[in-house]
Specification:
The protein has one helix at residues 42-57, and strands at residues 4-8, 14-21, 29-36. The protein has 60 residues and is an alpha+beta fold.
Length: 60
């Protein structure tokens, strides 16, 4: 499964879904969504994913 999906909502908005799976002590699947006013770069999405993942796994 992919770690994220980017989808265009309309001419000015992009939806990014981040998928987190198999994180200890968390539900089996977590999906976070964020709307951008422009198409985000792969680096921006990777950074957001890493930040959220680290937040979920802190103290495990």
């Amino acid at each position: 499964m992919d770690k994220w999906k980017i989808e265009r909502i309309d001419r000015t908005r992009w939806l990014v879904e981040l998928y987190f799976n198999d994180i200890p002590k968390m539900p089996p699947k977590i999906t976070l969504t964020k709307v951008y006013n422009r198409k985000p770069t792969e680096e921006e999405i990777e950074y957001a994913y890493t930040e959220w993942y680290n937040g979920f796994t802190m103290g495990k």
